[in-house]
From TrEMBL:
Highest taxon of source: Bacteria
Short name of one Pfam family: FAD-oxidase_C
Entry keyword set: FAD, Flavoprotein
Protein name: FAD-binding oxidoreductase
Family: Belongs to the FAD-binding oxidoreductase/transferase type 4 family.
Domain FAD-binding PCMH-type as annotated: residue spans: 42-223
Keyword Chaperone appears in the UniProt entry: no
PROSITE patterns in alphabetical order: FAD_PCMH
Length: 475
């Protein structure tokens, strides 16, 4: 059915009858929160928002939409940085909200697994694991809003990837509604299952373009019984990497997170976020070191102090403070986690979610910062992120006095400038945010040839009518 033709009204009537009054939204005020992305890059239209309460309801709704050729857009917490969860401007794409599918179905502390539905908020999953005496380690700034289905569909990374891996590594099995309405139940709790193609990995990172994740079996871990967090001012980017190596070489298993922040980003936090106090000021380069162990006698305080003493003597660390309480640990982490909000309040910014080999991170930060400042005089590079796994958010803040629209008009030029450096360093143009709508035009040059051809064949085989989150991922 052509994109400019409205959906047949009988379809909407059937969907309403299937899902009931709580399961479908059609009023303008109810649709509003589902139409724009968190960054306000895109604003679309939809005839309705579906809110199924179960996998079977979703499957039946997908069958109806497939028969009518109606495109579907899955939406979790709508925290995508690349416009992956909003409809386009045509007005035909139906949004499917997973908000009502929010049950933790099972927790097994012996198997160390949790089975959670797609609409479970990440923080709720963390809390449920903690109540069972376990840890679900995936952690990111939007964890109070992002959902399990969303973080798996985008293969989210976050702060603890250096220790536990991305969302993909934390998933053992999936339940998925396919484009024809079939339900694939792959909710297996097995660590070993060598039985042909690992289908579950097709859907993680696919951003809903192959099917909709409805539930997942997640890996749990022993909870931390000892932890230490330090904020450091380091000499430069190379010193930040040197400090990471020192900590890693002492005890790689103790490193839960290792985050880099620029002085510009820390200052934006201090001025833009209410209560944004910073115990160490005046630095150009900061590092947040987070150590944790499930052993109560791990000696992490002594380890942290020894490493920092060595780094101070070597001139790599210029100043440092170690948190003395859980409240202080949270306050130090807040400096890092509020970076996106601080940038948003400061004005327009362009996000560059990129990764390079860990050893090349100092060069990425130095070269990109210099190139961006030369490209747009007065602009302010705000690099921050997961130095321990090579993922740096190489963001750029608009110059003071420049109109936001004029600055954002240079978005693709800015991204191209960073990406050319990333390419030279053997990196990726998307580390953890995914492709969404924002980066589809980059796929041809970065993943063209055989790789993109295989992706298109997979899409055509599983979703031949192209109704699952169209316009995302593939150019």
């Amino acid at each position: 059915m052509p994109d400019d033709q409205p959906l047949p009204s009988p379809l909407l009537d059937r969907l309403a009858a299937l899902l009931g009054p709580r399961g479908i939204l059609t009023e303008a005020a109810d649709l509003e929160p589902h139409l724009a992305d968190w960054r306000a890059l895109y604003r679309g239209k939809t005839p309705c928002v579906l809110r199924p309460a179960s996998t079977q309801e979703l499957a039946e709704a997908v069958k109806l939409c497939a028969a009518a050729g109606a495109p579907l857009v899955p939406q979790g917490g709508n925290t995508s940085m690349v416009g992956g969860g909003v409809p386009d401007e045509g007005g035909r794409q139906i949004v499917v909200s997973m908000a009502r599918m929010n049950r933790v179905r099972d927790i097994d502390p012996l198997d160390m697994t949790m089975t959670a539905e797609a609409g479970v908020v990440l923080k709720a999953a963390q809390d449920a694991a903690a109540e069972a005496g376990c840890l679900f380690p995936l952690s990111l700034g939007a964890e109070g809003t992002a959902t399990i289905g969303g973080v798996l569909s985008t293969n989210a990374g976050g702060n603890t990837t250096v220790r536990y891996g991305n969302a993909r590594e934390l998933m053992l099995g999936l339940e998925v509604v396919l484009p024809d309405g079939q339900v694939w139940n792959g909710l297996r709790r097995l660590r070993k299952d060598n039985t042909g193609y690992a289908l579950r990995h097709l859907f993680v990172g696919a951003e809903g373009t192959l099917g909709f994740i409805t539930a997942a079996v997640l890996r749990l871990f022993p909870r931390a019984r000892e932890s230490e967090v330090a904020l450091c001012i380091v000499r430069d980017e190379a010193a930040a990497l040197a400090l990471f190596r020192r900590v890693r070489d002492r005890d790689e298993t103790a490193v839960r997170a290792f985050e880099y922040m620029s002085g510009t980003g820390v200052e934006l936090y201090r001025t833009q976020i209410e209560g944004g106090t910073v115990p160490l000021t005046g630095g150009e380069h900061y590092v947040l070191v987070d150590l944790a162990s499930s052993r109560p006698d791990a000696g992490l305080r002594a380890l942290m102090e020894a490493v920092l003493e060595e780094a101070l003597e070597a001139g790599e660390v210029l100043d440092a403070t170690i948190a003395e309480s859980e409240a202080q640990r949270a306050a130090l982490w807040r400096i890092r986690e509020e970076h996106p909000e601080a940038q948003k309040r400061e004005g327009a910014s362009v996000k560059n979610d990129v990764s390079v080999p860990v050893s090349r991170t100092p060069e990425l930060i130095r070269r990109s910062s210099a190139a961006l400042k030369a490209m747009i005089p007065g602009s302010r590079p705000v690099p921050f992120g997961h130095l321990g796994d090579g993922n740096i958010h190489m963001n750029l803040q608009q110059p003071p006095g420049m109109q936001a629209a004029d600055f954002l008009a240079r978005s693709h030029d800015i991204m191209d400038t960073v990406n050319e450096i990333v390419r030279e360093l053997g990196g990726s143009f998307s580390a953890e945010h995914g492709i969404g709508r924002l980066k589809t035009d980059m796929m041809e040059s970065w993943r063209g040839g055989a790789e993109l051809d295989v992706m298109r064949r997979v899409k055509a085989a599983i979703d031949p009518r192209g109704i699952m989150n169209p316009g995302k991922v593939l150019p």
